[in-house]
């Protein structure tokens, strides 16, 4: 590590727990966002549920 090697996140966690290395906090707001397929399914579900409502109103 003196020559510039970077530990993986898992190893950095172990080293931080042992007090050898301070682990940098990470933030990934995209992690919880649904993927493309799930977004497509949600749009299809919303469209399908909106169609019967539109037909009953007309």
Describe the structure.
The chain is mainly α. Helices cover 55% and strands 0% of the residues. It is rod-shaped. The relative contact order is 0.08. The model has no long low-confidence stretch (mean pLDDT 85).
Gyration radius over CA: 24 Å
Strands, total number? 0
Helix content: 55-70%
Mean pLDDT: 85
Largest sheet: none
Beta content: under 5%
Structural class comes to mainly alpha
What characteristics describe this protein?
single chain; 58 residues
Summarize the structure.
With 58 residues, the protein is mostly helical. 55% of the residues lie in helices and 0% in strands.
Q: What are the SSEs and their pairings?
A:
Layout: H1 9-18, H2 36-57
């Amino acid at each position: 590590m003196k020559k510039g090697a970077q530990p993986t996140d898992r190893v950095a966690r172990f080293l931080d727990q042992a007090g050898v290395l301070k682990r940098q906090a990470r933030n990934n707001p995209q992690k919880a966002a649904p993927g493309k397929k799930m977004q497509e399914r949600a749009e299809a579900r919303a469209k399908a549920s909106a169609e019967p409502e539109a037909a009953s109103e007309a």
